[in-house]
Amino acid sequence: MSVVAKNDPELNRLAENMMERTNISDSDVVAGGLELTFSAAIDDAENLEQLGPVIKQITETGRQEAFVDQLDNLVRKKDAEIERMCNAHYQEFVQAVDQLLKVRQGSVALRQKIADVNVALQTRGSRLSEKRRELIEARRVQQNVEDAIEVLQKSLTMLELANTANVQLESKKYYSALKTLDNLENEHLQDMPSYTFVEHISKGVPLTQKMVKDDVTIQLREWLATVRGVSREIGSLAMQRMQERQDRWRTKTADNPKLRYLQHHNVNSAIEMVVNEGLESSIVDEVAIDFEPLYRCIHIYDTLERRHEFKTSYEEDRRAQANLALSAPINLRDGNMTPFEALLQDIVGFFIIEHIVMHSTQDFRSRGEVDALWEMVTGKIILVVSESLKGCRDPELFLRIKFSLLIFIQTLESFDYLVKPLQETLLTLFQRYSELLINQYSEVFEKIVQEDECMPMTVENADELREVMQYTRFRPDREFLKRHGFPLRLPFSKVFPTCCRDVSAFVHQFYQFAEGFSQTHGEMDDILKKAVDSLLIQKINAILLKKLQSTNLSQIVQIIINIEYFESTCPDFEMLLMETRSFHRSGRIHLKASSTFKETRRKAEKRIFELVNSKLDEFLELAEFDWETRELQQYPSSHLQDLVTFLTNVTNAALLNLPESIKSLLYFDALEHLSHSLKNLLLDPDNRVITEVALRNFDTDVRFIEDFVHQLGDPTILDTFAELRQLIDHAMSDNPEEYLTPQIRTRKYGRVNGRDVIVLFEKLLRDNTTTYGSNPRQKSRRKGMENVARVLRSVHI
């Protein structure tokens, strides 16, 4: 009925109309109620909300009977429709029922047959089941027998393997024993039942493995102790081989002209390794150490899959051995190098063994681990050296330590160890060494120069002369030696050859330490140049400069000679520095000392001029010129005679060894100073009057000095008194007015200053004691002087 209702268009239409209408009629309400009632039976959920208002409205309007009538009509209508449908399909229904009856009869017969077959099958199955149970029991017994046989066979195999492992352990075949135990544990014990003897064997395998591990570990520790004992021997041999290699390289580069330019390349440098490729043997080939205990231990721990444990243990053991070697007390200040050299040999041997182990094993000693250990040892060596040398003032000890450290560095550098920190330590030692060396030679130079007596050096024989010539450029010829013979007096004092020898020794001692520092050789060249300059300037030159304060003329002369020789030897010092400096540096070296010595020489020359001039001033201060005298003297003044005697002695004694150029300068300066001093005496404003007689006496003194100047025979000093001579000649001339004629003045009085003429003429004209009236010539001369003075005053005012 629900299907019919859902497909009934009339009911659907009725429901739709009820929803659309707003004014519901009675018939509509009844029809709507029917439809909703019918629909509610179909789907209460869908029509409940619609049915409620309809029933409510029917009840409120009192149409219940009409609604029931309409509902009855609808039912009758639907019954009629059902009846029509049944009449249409009745024949088919009858046929279906007949067929069902026939099927029912066949199924009853079939059921009887099945029951009979089941009874027969049950009877036969019981007998078969009994036989099957018997068969299963027989097969179970057979399987138990087979399992027992298999277990016995496996037990025999397992016991045989256990016995084999014990035999291998007794014969020290540890690896074979471990492999047997591994085979026993992983392939046999796991498949065996939990029998007592199986559990006993299973528990014994780890114990046996531990026993093997402990045994090889003990052997390794014994091997480590043996290695520690031979490390020093290996290190000593390696350092000896390196020293021999250095000597061969030095000899090869020195003897072979083609390789001479390579002699500054160190051992282990790329150049040295290329030249000697295939010629040098490795110390590794000579190390007679049996590494089998180590390799066995590595193999066993690998087999036990405990390599990391062994690596850690080995690292700790080796680090402990390194610390033990470094723990020995070392004091280098007492000069005993034996403990320090033994320490270096121990370390070299130690790290050669590390090198061999690292390159002969795989994944055991990594480069990082060995480098970390090397870094630790390097730091402690540097600390030992630094602490031991605190306060040390002995350059020779620094040099010995340097040689030991250099061989140590080069030996381990050949095994690819990083040696830069040690090289930096050597550079630090070098800086301290150079400071000590400079201080030592500063004291030596200071003592030599201070104690020098500034007297010419004397050599007693040819050997002493050769020693002087070895360090200086002084080369006397045969005639000189034949003429003077021995003992031979040299121009310079002892300070010059002694300092030259010590400069050479200083340079060679300096480069003794610098050997092996190719990376920083250029920096050392600069340090040495500054050091040599400092010694020459701050010690030799400075002390000689202080000695110039002396008033001893002979000492000043000797200082000038010494300084001149030092100045001339500076190019030799420069050449020495160029010959010993780093091979890759070129260009000329210039020492500041050369110009400093030149400046000091000029100061020394000036000092001689000052001393001589001062002495001349002393003579002139002692002189008592009587400018108003009436007594004509026949001979020069005594003080001027003494002055000339002094100059003669200076020439023949004190200045004897001076170069002629300096002598000429000295003479020129002294005589020019004397000339100006005498002119100043003549023109002294304190002396207002000069008589004719006093002027003639002064002319006699000047001529005496002029004669001395001519006797010296030096053409450069002949004109030193020209100005004074022209002034005196003009004052004594009968025709003073000729000075006013330019041509005559230029020719005869070219050096005379007009102001000097005025002063001198005024002094002569103030002499009223001289009688000019009876002598026309004198009267004319006086008028001429008055005229000249008047004209010159008009010009110079």
From TrEMBL:
Keyword annotations for this protein, in alphabetical order, are: Coiled coil, Exocytosis, Transport
Transport: is it a keyword of this entry?
yes
Q: Name one Pfam family in it.
A: Sec15_C
Has the keyword Coiled coil been applied to this entry? yes
Q: Which GO terms describe its cellular component?
A: exocyst; membrane
Per its UniProt record, what InterPro entries does this chain match? EXOC6/Sec15, EXOC6/Sec15_C, EXOC6/Sec15_C_dom1, EXOC6_Sec15_N, EXOC6PINT-1/Sec15/Tip20_C_dom2
Where the record annotates domain Exocyst complex component EXOC6/Sec15 N-terminal, the positions are: 70-239
**TM segments?**
none
Exocyst complex subunit EXOC6/Sec15 C-terminal domain: from which residue to which, for each copy? Answer: 421-763
Biological process, per Gene Ontology? Golgi to plasma membrane transport; intracellular protein transport; vesicle tethering involved in exocytosis
Entries under Gene3D superfamilies matching the protein:
Dsl1p vesicle tethering complex, Tip20p subunit, domain D, Exocyst complex subunit Sec15 C-terminal domain, N-terminal subdomain
Protein task:
Component of the exocyst complex involved in the docking of exocytic vesicles with fusion sites on the plasma membrane.
According to its UniProt record, which protein family does this protein belong to? Belongs to the SEC15 family.
What name is this protein filed under?
Exocyst complex component SEC15
